[in-house]
Structure to design on (578 residues):
């Protein structure tokens, strides 16, 4: 990773030059370039796909755990809650490092397990599986946090409602899905918005796993990695800023569209 | 998106119940439920367990250990590994730990002060442009933080602030979500009548704030402080972009640097991998302890985040 620091490094001919001499008009051109740049668009396409697959999986896992923990009020359940929450205490960078080791074909447990059967473990950072390899890292890191938010919301429900429902003959499943889930929908919505914002700016995990991926994670893998490479590998600071802001616009639109469609069902920032 | 509807200061609701609720009878469901939890606990704990086990191995054990990746080797090399970690590269690791602590505390505390003041101002004072500024604030909650890193880098570069501690601390002071949380919490938790009463009694604005409002805001202050400190501690993109001098790196960027070096040269990398692993473990331990010790605050804080 070469870190070019001087901002006044010569830029390629198609890039507007010099920050200090005050180029104003070039701004629009940079945005136009960004939105037609296949590298940027590929990155946006990846993070959008990633969000669409990842977020529902994460939500389902954390909702299921929260519902189970809410129903069991034992010591064991409390310990389980802590253990599942624990990965949130670990910085994303370190979490990605750990999973990078676990995926490693040279000393990771996955390969050792496969060795027992005389097989090769699938390389989760290879071109076919990197999507799931990264999804696993992010789910591991965040599901516990989302679980705790949902759990706290569940604990906030007045339990006399359950008594009433039981009197009316509702079973545990009905109480869970007809009462509990709708009553925590605003917490779910909040999580969705944060997960969406976070996923679209995906950076730390793929950046950390890049050296281990044998080139699968390219310098334009996500928009943020692309902006970072443009800035610090090619010294195109202006264009990198345009990419950053273009990503900001994409995120803003995505969140806005999402909130627009969920508006009827209670609100986070209405 | 301008107003927010909430029912109550939500931080208060966490501890209210817990034993009032008994699980329904029907032990068949329970076995399934525990099985489900057990599988998940294993999944969430395995990487941490692996990190601990791998930290006790020497380079040979790490790559060709006899007992597998998830169990200890015959040679228990935790202490030599620790010595390697703290002496490698003239003990730069300790420097990174100190940097992370410094950034987290300075940035987190500073951000909290700004959040409390701004949130209180928005919630309790009516002034020109308040609605517009609130709308901008809510909008900026949705602007991804990373979108600002490279533009901030350029700005700081012109001010000759890159590659200094200020490059990490100054951007960390801005926390729109924290301001939003404080504003919402203040609006509910601090009644106007109380402030008016204090003013009638002759307390100035500053005294009213410190003596009347601030004590009521304590739960939210703790939450915002915790969230801010962890946010700065975990930050990677910002310091990675801003800093070139390795002596200013926080742990996250430092370990990332080592990892890049270790995967870059496979020949000399074996030793470095071990150092990275123990470095990751050492950096995680204080977090886990702090986390377990402050559990109560975390959960209070998180439900504050799950505003209705």
């Amino acid at each position: 990773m070469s870190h070019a620091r001087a901002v006044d490094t010569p830029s390629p001919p198609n890039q507007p030059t010099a920050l200090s001499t005050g180029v104003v008009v070039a701004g629009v051109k940079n945005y136009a370039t960004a939105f037609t740049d296949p590298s940027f668009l590929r990155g946006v396409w990846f993070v959008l796909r990633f969000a669409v697959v990842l977020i529902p999986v994460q939500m389902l896992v954390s909702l299921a755990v929260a519902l189970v923990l809410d129903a069991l009020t034992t010591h064991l359940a409390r310990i389980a809650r802590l253990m599942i929450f624990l990965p949130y205490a670990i910085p994303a960078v370190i979490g990605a490092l750990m999973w990078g080791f676990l995926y490693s074909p040279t000393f990771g447990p996955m390969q050792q397990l496969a060795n027992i059967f005389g097989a090769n473990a699938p390389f989760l950072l290879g071109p076919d599986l990197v999507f799931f390899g990264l999804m696993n890292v992010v789910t591991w890191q965040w599901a516990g946090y989302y679980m705790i938010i949902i759990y706290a919301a569940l604990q906030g429900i007045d339990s006399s409602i359950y008594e009433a429902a039981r009197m009316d003959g509702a079973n545990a499943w009905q109480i869970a899905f007809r009462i509990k889930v709708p009553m925590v929908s605003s917490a779910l919505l909040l999580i969705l918005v944060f997960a969406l914002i976070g996923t679209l700016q995906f950076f730390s995990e793929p950046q950390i796993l890049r050296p281990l991926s044998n080139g699968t994670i390219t310098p334009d893998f996500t928009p943020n990695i692309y902006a970072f490479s443009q800035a610090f590998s090619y010294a195109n600071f202006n264009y990198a800023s345009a990419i950053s802001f273009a990503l900001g616009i994409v995120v803003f639109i995505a969140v806005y569209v999402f909130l627009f469609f969920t508006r009827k069902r209670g609100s986070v920032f209405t | 998106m301008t107003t927010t509807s909430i029912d109550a200061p939500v931080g208060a609701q966490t501890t209210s119940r817990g034993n009032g609720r008994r699980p329904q009878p029907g032990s068949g469901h329970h076995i399934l439920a525990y099985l489900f939890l057990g599988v998940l606990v294993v999944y969430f704990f395995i990487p941490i367990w692996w990190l601990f086990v791998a930290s006790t191995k020497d380079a040979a054990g790490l790559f060709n250990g006899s007992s597998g990746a998830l169990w200890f080797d015959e040679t228990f090399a935790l202490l030599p590994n620790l010595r390697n970690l703290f002496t490698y590269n003239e003990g730069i690791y300790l420097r990174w730990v100190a940097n992370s602590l410094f950034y987290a505390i300075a940035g987190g505390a500073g951000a909290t002060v700004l959040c409390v003041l701004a949130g209180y101002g928005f919630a309790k004072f009516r002034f020109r442009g308040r609605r517009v500024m609130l709308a901008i604030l809510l909008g900026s909650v949705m602007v991804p933080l990373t979108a600002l890193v490279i533009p901030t880098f350029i700005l700081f570069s012109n001010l000759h602030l890159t590659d200094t501690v200020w490059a990490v601390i100054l951007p960390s002071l801005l926390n729109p979500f924290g301001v939003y949380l404080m504003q919402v919490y203040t609006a509910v938790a601090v009644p106007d009548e109380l402030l008016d009463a204090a003013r009638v009694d002759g307390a100035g604005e500053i005294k009213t704030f410190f003596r009347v409002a601030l004590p009521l805001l304590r739960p939210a202050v703790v939450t915002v402080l915790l969230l801010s400190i962890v946010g700065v501690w975990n930050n990677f993109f910002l310091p990675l972009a801003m800093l070139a001098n390795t002596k200013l790196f926080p742990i996250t960027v430092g370990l990332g640097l080592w990892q890049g070096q270790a995967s870059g040269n496979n020949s000399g990398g074996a030793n470095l991998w071990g150092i990275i692993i123990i470095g990751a473990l050492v950096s995680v331990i204080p977090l886990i302890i702090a986390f377990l010790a402050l559990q109560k605050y975390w959960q209070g804080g998180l439900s504050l985040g799950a505003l209705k």
Observations:
- Chain B touches chain A through 96 residues (CB under 8 Å).
- Residues 34 and 80 of chain B are 40 Å apart (CA to CA).
- Confidence is low (pLDDT under 50) at residues 1-26 of chain B.
